[in-house]
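Hey,
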Amino acid sequence: MRTGNPSFTRLLAGAASLMALSVAAPATVQAQAVLDEIIVTATKRAENQQQVPISVGTVAPEKLDAVMSGGVDLLALSAQVPSLYVESTFSRTFPRFYIRGLGNSDFDLTSTQPVGLVIDEVVQENPMLRGFPLFDVERVEVLRGPQGTLFGRNTPAGTVSFISKKPTQETEGYLTASYGSKNTIGAEGAIGGALVDGILSARLSMKYDRKDDFIDNTFTGEKNAAGGHNEVAARLQLAYEKGPLSALFNVHARDLDGTARVFVANAIKKGSNDLSSTFSRNSVFQNGQNALSVSSQGGSLKLEYDFDGVMLTSITGFETVDVYTRGDIDGGVAGRGPGFVPFDSETADAVPDHAQWTQELRLSNADGERFRWQGGLFYFNEDVTAYGYAYGNAADPRGIAIFTDSQQETKTWALFGQASYDLTEQVTLTGGLRYNDEEKDFAVIRTMPGVPGSTTGGAELSDGQVTWDLSLTYKATDDVNLFARVANGYRAPSIQSRPLFYFGNNINRDALSIAKAETLMSYEAGVKSDLWERKARLNVTAFYTDIEDQQFTAVGGASNNNTLINAKGGEGYGFEAELELLPVENLMLTGGLSYNHTEIKDSTLRIPVCGGGCTVTDPVVNGFAQLDGNSFPNAPKWIFSASARYGIPVEGGEIYAFTDWNYRSKVNFFLYTSREFYSDSKLEGGLKLGYVSDDEKLGVAIFGRNITNEKSLEGAIDFNNLTGIVNQAPFYGVELTSKF
């Protein structure tokens, strides 16, 4: 749905702003810079992005600084890279990543995802680990397509990798402070340098964000009852290098307190996708509590030893997280609104105990050899305890009515290897193979205070899978590379039980679901080119994906439950195109475009539909919607992004303007289709105007996000009313930066 000007008009407005910056460039073109070489680690080797036979998208630090202005969370990355979409029904945590339309809309705290997230070479498996804020980052890499050989299971769609800036021997750092809308205060900084000359260096990075509550609760009369947060995160790195041995130690922590995402009952008009006339971003009418707290800590140790041309690498990682989130799920007050609210529903989820250990050992030969190889072992162990609470019993409307305690342990080990051979000076063949073995144990107990006894359930799974990839690269010229790649991917089997709203006595039969392993085959071909004397860079990839036993989550419905299901098949196809351009001196343009067609292929697959009177447009038989032919949830067909930076040199520095725009087409929230539960196309833009001194010791800027006041549905709950979630309101602020 949209309000105000249509998104297409805003798309034209965004394009016009980019052209306006181009027109403002000097007419006389003098000596121009060339595009920087982008080094990525998509193959676990440092390589030029243009020479890697994988579809790789990156977000440069300056663009990242702009889109993350004002202390926004990882949802700001959505649509900044072709084929990447990010959404969440939580607040500043639990981002759900989608690549080429493949993702998971599950809101369960033990759910698995088909998009891997790696931070500083350590996988972040639990969804609650994935919200760790971005700061002091060197780059963001988005690897599209299956990455099973080197990154393992649960990467059939691809992998998102965050790489922090590392310690160096040079003493340097920065400090950034910002102030913006709704009394938002942000501070970020880093300092690093040598501790022992030539041997030991360190880097300390920190981030602080605070936003005042701004949402009034008109039911309780409380002003500024929700919407705010207070977040602190830090990272300390120590780097050692002497002779053949190098080591990198990383310890990090995060603490977040605030409110969860606010749900609004009957925010959507029945029979349409429009927001109701009473909807407001700044007020709610609720009788439930709202809270969110996340505390996470982790560390890693990377050791490398050079045995005269053969490198041994060890990466040991540990992560732990403690989470509590509580919300008014019905979004209103039973019998009093807004609109029809048949009964109150207030729930909470918690992860009080969690531990993840990872270990990778890898051997590789030196870069530059005609035959390049690497291979190793990987081990993963995760123990997680998740609590679920449903509130409101006969004795106490705010007391606990149902409590669930879930325990899950996952153990995985893998063997992997990959090799590249230069058949000629122009042609390189690369192949990889991995065997992954996984065991998963799950147990759940449900109790009802005041009711004798308890109900238990559980399951055990084990699975072994082989993944592989094969690619061919052809160096057409020094600046143009062609590649073709075939790869398969694997998503481990999943277990889920969420019996908060189940009142039977056989959880395993009626309230526990298991999804078997998902596998897929991916075929892609592309071209990577540096053009116009390296003043332009154009990369294009076309792909086709065939999926077997695709895992989905039937979310919500009349029972407000999560049920894992397997579709017999699914398919996706499309393309990605990325452009960087230096048309004239001091002007930098970037653009990205992707098309993703997705389709469920299962004529027998049916699920229950909404419990609040939505208008289902799929064929419905006895309350079950037929899904064959539907697109995947949260899978926009079109994603477009563009940015422009123009600088005007002045005495002692530069005045600059940076603008970025991202567009995504319609997305459907659930597996079934309806007239209510989708988001129409959306275009959001940002603008940053500033000054930076020649030595970069001083920088000042004003910025705005969502500057056209786009209002769009971002998610929904189909439990018992037309509950909706909308995107963030326009945000404006000022920023001061000092580098040293």
